[in-house]
Automatic annotation (TrEMBL):
Leader peptide range in chain numbering: 1-28
Record InterPro entries: SsuA/THI5
Subcellular locations according to the entry: Periplasm
Keyword Transferase applies: no
Alphabetically ordered keywords of this record: Signal
Protein name per UniProt: SsuA/THI5-like domain-containing protein
A cellular component term, taken from the record's GO annotations: periplasmic space
All residue ranges annotated as the SsuA/THI5-like domain in the record: 46-246
Main location (coarse class): periplasm
Family: Belongs to the bacterial solute-binding protein SsuA/TauA family.
Length: 327
């Protein structure tokens, strides 16, 4: 299950904002921590949004900026126009040697490959067929590349459609016949078209879906502020795992996603309960062992070079803020 990417926004923002990188002020000690998200704010984002609000309550200013793609958001962090990004940029770091490092593991991969059972009934049926995933470089793409290898098939094309609920809608409309969705969208498919869609098996995958990463200069210069933020991330994740129903209460408390439709708002509790049950919201923030699992998964999917015995995870991760927060 990938936490649902819903097309609902904060403060009435209708689309992800494309902001010229040069328009964002340079890093300063007393400036807000600038978080770059290459997506629109959604139910999926509530845990992060709550942690940001809690951090602000402790006197650390933060602001969230939306970019029109994850690639643009990553470039903003690399160039210092933003401080923190959302994603798991292992391949980008390996290919570019970019001065960015992950520092907090937010979600793990748990997806549901699904097909229109009137068209396909197995992985073998997808040989030479099109598969629709979330975005280029995403966990959904990596997983489908891995399944090509594991099942001995080759997709004719991978098409990119952000948002599990958007892909589910396309399946229901018949515009696509094979995709990968999260648990909430899988449930929607089963409710709207009982028996029409079937889930294909996936086993033995343990990898990060989304982490937070930062520019190395930020990690060095804003250590105390980042430690506060990580403390709040850890605490928020622990609270959600203990009682997922709190997320809906926090949304009201902090006036988050005010334009969320009533139907989606009513789904928050179930959504987070499923996320907790599926182990999508890991506790602790990440370990070197998690990083090695990520590299092994991405290597199997052909997105990074296979890690050798002497691999140094500090190329990808900086655990300083986590270690300080845990203490």
């Amino acid at each position: 299950m990938k936490i649902t990417r819903r097309l609902f926004t904060i403060a009435g923002t209708a689309i992800a904002l494309s902001i010229p990188l040069g328009a964002i002020p340079a890093l300063a000690q007393d400036a807000p921590i600038r978080v770059a998200m290459g997506d629109i704010a959604s139910v999926e984002s509530l845990g992060l949004l709550v942690a940001i609000e809690r951090t602000k309550e402790r006197g650390v200013p933060m602001e969230l900026t939306f970019f029109n793609s994850e690639d643009v958001a990553t470039q903003a962090v690399v160039g210092g126009q933003a401080d923190i990004g959302v994603g798991a940029p292992y391949a980008f770091i390996q290919n570019s040697n970019a001065p960015i490092r992950m520092f907090y593991r937010m979600t793990t991969l748990l997806f549901f490959p699904v097909v229109n059972s009137e068209v396909y009934s197995s992985w073998a049926d997808l040989d030479g067929e099109e598969m629709t995933v979330h975005s280029r470089g995403s966990g959904t793409e990596a997983l489908m590349r891995l399944m090509e290898q594991n099942e001995g098939i080759t997709f004719s094309n991978l098409s990119y459609v952000p948002g599990a609920e958007v892909r589910a809608g396309a399946l229901l409309q018949g515009t696509i016949n094979a995709s990968i969705v999260d648990a909430a969208s899988m449930r929607l498919l089963e409710e709207q078209a009982p028996g029409k869609f079937m889930q294909l098996p996936v086993e033995g995958v343990n990898a990060t879906d989304e982490a937070l990463y930062a520019n190395a200069s930020f990690l060095e210069n804003r250590t105390d502020d980042l430690t506060v933020f990580v403390e709040e991330l850890i605490g928020t994740w622990e609270d959600i795992n203990e009682n997922p129903a709190q997320v809906a209460e926090w949304r009201a408390q902090y006036d988050l996603l005010p334009d969320l439709p009533a139907e989606a708002a009513g789904d928050i509790e179930q959504f987070y309960a499923e996320a907790v049950e599926g182990g999508v919201l890991p506790l602790g923030g990440g370990t070197p062992e998690d990083a090695m699992d990520d590299l092994a998964f991405l290597a199997a999917a052909g997105q990074v070079q296979a890690p050798g015995e002497d691999v140094d995870v500090s190329m990808y991760w900086d655990f300083g803020a986590l270690d300080a927060a845990r203490q």
